[in-house]
Amino acid sequence: MREKILQVKTFGSFSMIYDGKSLFGRKVGETQFASMMQMLIHERKKGVSRDRLE
User: Fold this and answer.
1) Which terminus, N or C, of the chain has the lesser number of Cβ atoms within 10 Å?
2) DSSP letters along the chain, please?
């Protein structure tokens, strides 16, 4: 069974690739999704409150 990998690029432009596919499409909410994912990744040890995410 092939291992699925999440690749996160945080220098320059932010991008995320999971199993060879970009997690960002050409959706209107793309920047909101990118901001939320950056917050979750950077604060993964202490967590992010739901209020802050909203």
Assistant:
1) N
2) -PPP-EEEE-SSS-EEEETTEES--S-TTHHHHHHHHHHHHHTTTT---HHHH-
In the predicted structure, residue 14 carries a pLDDT above the cut 70:
yes
DSSP state of 3: P
Q: Which residue has the tokens 């932010």?
A: 14
Q: Give 28-52 pLDDT, tens digit per residue.
A: 456 777 788 888 888 888 888 888 8
**pTM for this entry:** 0.52
Residue bearing tokens 């690739």: 17
User: 25: helix, coil or strand?
Assistant: coil
